[in-house]
């Protein structure tokens, strides 16, 4: 790795069209899992002007299958919570269509347990987890602050601290790294949807002044860009038309925002809308969990972990650890120890992290990682393997 460089990550708000779609898809996952912990869900959502469309494959035990009305209500409740009550996209009046259908029997035969056969992976693929010591949550600093900026703005909008913000927004943070450590921002960007009240020069100044206070509150002291010209607030001008009315949204189009902001590899599979038998989700979560524990145990300052799976096969095909030259022990030794601490089959992952529960909608905005573990939620952010790793490798 280079010691001195600039690096950038972006985030998008809960009201971004793609994030609206992600949150609806995960609301459907939670609805099914709340009725049947072994339900199978692969739900895709498309949102556009006054329209919500669901498609995908589902399976649940008899008597646990939600009604069409309940699925529709879960979608509308999600849009209402986000805050869309606009002419071009309204939680109550948008057209709704559901094209969910039964899961393929050929997929089911590979995934389900039967006789001596262990439960297999729900798909093939590669999954990555990452952790670094740039923030207390062991996340890349550029993405961490991009998320925090939009979370602060959303909190102010919901609490009516300000009355001119609408749900759709994006942020971008560029940080300067010296000797591998982030030392300050060189450029900041926020584009946010706003009410008509700000559609004049005075309103745009009011918006910029507000966003500047958010930057000052979220970033560490002394981190603001030295050049004010490198702080961009709605650089294209007015932003009244936004959300699904301004741009169609689809599940799974913000996978870098969901993970590590470009600071680590990505296997390509989206998370939202998928039950935890899909290793796109569960194996990515366990990879983050393992990488975070490696860094938290002091075995490395940065750690990337890759897992790979074949559909219908329980055990991973490979486990790869890279500590990017920052490790205190050989990566091969870490690779040998991790499977002893957690069984890396789909069922083993879900059991270890308690994933067969309705816990997924909160993951679908502001990142799946770097969040606070709280009871059943974000269990993959725990650092409860630290002592075991130190005992084996410290």
UniProtKB/TrEMBL annotation:
<protein>
    <recommendedName>
        <fullName>Methionine adenosyltransferase</fullName>
        <ecNumber>2.5.1.6</ecNumber>
    </recommendedName>
</protein>
<dbReference type="InterPro" id="IPR002133">
    <property type="entry name" value="S-AdoMet_synthetase"/>
</dbReference>
<keyword id="KW-0479">Metal-binding</keyword>
<feature type="domain" description="S-adenosylmethionine synthetase N-terminal">
    <location>
        <begin position="4"/>
        <end position="105"/>
    </location>
</feature>
<comment type="similarity">
    <text>Belongs to the AdoMet synthase family.</text>
</comment>
<dbReference type="GO" id="GO:0006730">
    <property type="term" value="P:one-carbon metabolic process"/>
</dbReference>
<keyword id="KW-0554">One-carbon metabolism</keyword>
<dbReference type="GO" id="GO:0046872">
    <property type="term" value="F:metal ion binding"/>
</dbReference>
<keyword id="KW-0067">ATP-binding</keyword>
<dbReference type="InterPro" id="IPR022630">
    <property type="entry name" value="S-AdoMet_synt_C"/>
</dbReference>
<dbReference type="InterPro" id="IPR022628">
    <property type="entry name" value="S-AdoMet_synt_N"/>
</dbReference>
<comment type="pathway">
    <text>Amino-acid biosynthesis; S-adenosyl-L-methionine biosynthesis; S-adenosyl-L-methionine from L-methionine: step 1/1.</text>
</comment>
<dbReference type="GO" id="GO:0006556">
    <property type="term" value="P:S-adenosylmethionine biosynthetic process"/>
</dbReference>
<dbReference type="GO" id="GO:0004478">
    <property type="term" value="F:methionine adenosyltransferase activity"/>
</dbReference>
<feature type="domain" description="S-adenosylmethionine synthetase C-terminal">
    <location>
        <begin position="241"/>
        <end position="382"/>
    </location>
</feature>
<dbReference type="Pfam" id="PF02773">
    <property type="entry name" value="S-AdoMet_synt_C"/>
</dbReference>
<comment type="subunit">
    <text>Homotetramer.</text>
</comment>
<keyword id="KW-0808">Transferase</keyword>
<dbReference type="InterPro" id="IPR022629">
    <property type="entry name" value="S-AdoMet_synt_central"/>
</dbReference>
<dbReference type="InterPro" id="IPR022631">
    <property type="entry name" value="ADOMET_SYNTHASE_CS"/>
</dbReference>
<keyword id="KW-0547">Nucleotide-binding</keyword>
<keyword id="KW-0460">Magnesium</keyword>
<feature type="domain" description="S-adenosylmethionine synthetase central">
    <location>
        <begin position="119"/>
        <end position="239"/>
    </location>
</feature>
<dbReference type="GO" id="GO:0005737">
    <property type="term" value="C:cytoplasm"/>
</dbReference>
<dbReference type="Pfam" id="PF02772">
    <property type="entry name" value="S-AdoMet_synt_M"/>
</dbReference>
<keyword id="KW-0630">Potassium</keyword>
<dbReference type="Pfam" id="PF00438">
    <property type="entry name" value="S-AdoMet_synt_N"/>
</dbReference>
<dbReference type="InterPro" id="IPR022636">
    <property type="entry name" value="S-AdoMet_synthetase_sfam"/>
</dbReference>
<dbReference type="GO" id="GO:0005524">
    <property type="term" value="F:ATP binding"/>
</dbReference>
């Amino acid at each position: 790795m280079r010691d001195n460089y600039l690096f950038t990550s972006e985030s998008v708000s809960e009201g971004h069209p793609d994030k609206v779609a992600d949150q609806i898809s995960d609301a459907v996952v939670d609805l099914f899992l709340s009725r049947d912990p072994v339900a199978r869900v692969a739900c895709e959502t498309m949102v556009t002007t006054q329209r919500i469309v669901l498609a995908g494959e589902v399976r649940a035990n008899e008597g646990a299958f939600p009604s069409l009305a309940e699925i529709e209500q879960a979608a509308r409740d999600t849009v209402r919570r986000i805050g869309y009550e606009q002419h071009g996209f309204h939680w109550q009046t948008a057209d709704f269509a559901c094209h969910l259908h039964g899961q393929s029997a050929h997929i089911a035969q590979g995934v389900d347990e039967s006789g001596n056969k262990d439960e297999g992976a729900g798909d093939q693929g590669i999954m990555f987890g990452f952790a670094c010591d740039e923030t207390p949550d062991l996340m890349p600093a550029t993405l961490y602050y991009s998320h925090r900026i939009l979370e602060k703005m959303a909190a102010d909008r919901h609490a009516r601290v300000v009355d001119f913000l609408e749900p759709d927004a994006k942020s971008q943070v560029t940080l300067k790294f010296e000797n591998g450590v982030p030392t300050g921002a060189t450029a900041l960007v926020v584009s946010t949807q706003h009410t008509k009240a700000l559609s004049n020069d005075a309103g745009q100044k009011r918006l910029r002044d507000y966003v500047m206070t958010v930057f000052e509150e979220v970033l560490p002291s002394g981190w603001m860009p030295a050049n004010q010209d490198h702080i961009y607030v709605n650089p294209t001008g007015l932003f009244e038309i936004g959300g699904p009315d301004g741009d169609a949204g689809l599940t799974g189009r913000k996978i870098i925002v969901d993970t590590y902001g470009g600071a680590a590899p990505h296997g390509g599979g989206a998370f939202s809308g998928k039950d935890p038998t899909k290793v796109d989700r569960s194996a990515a979560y366990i990879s983050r969990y393992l990488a975070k524990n490696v860094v938290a145990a002091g075995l490395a300052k940065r750690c990337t972990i890759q897992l790979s799976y074949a559909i219908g096969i329980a055990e991973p095909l490979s486990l790869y650890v890279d500590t990017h030259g920052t490790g205190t022990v050989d990566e091969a030794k870490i690779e040998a120890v991790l499977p002893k601490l957690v069984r890396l089959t789909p069922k083993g992952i879900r059991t270890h992290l308690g994933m067969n529960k309705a816990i997924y909608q909160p993951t679908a905005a502001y990142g799946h990682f770097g969040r606070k573990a709280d009871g059943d939620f974000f269990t993959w952010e725990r650092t409860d393997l630290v002592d075991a790793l130190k005992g084996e490798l410290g």
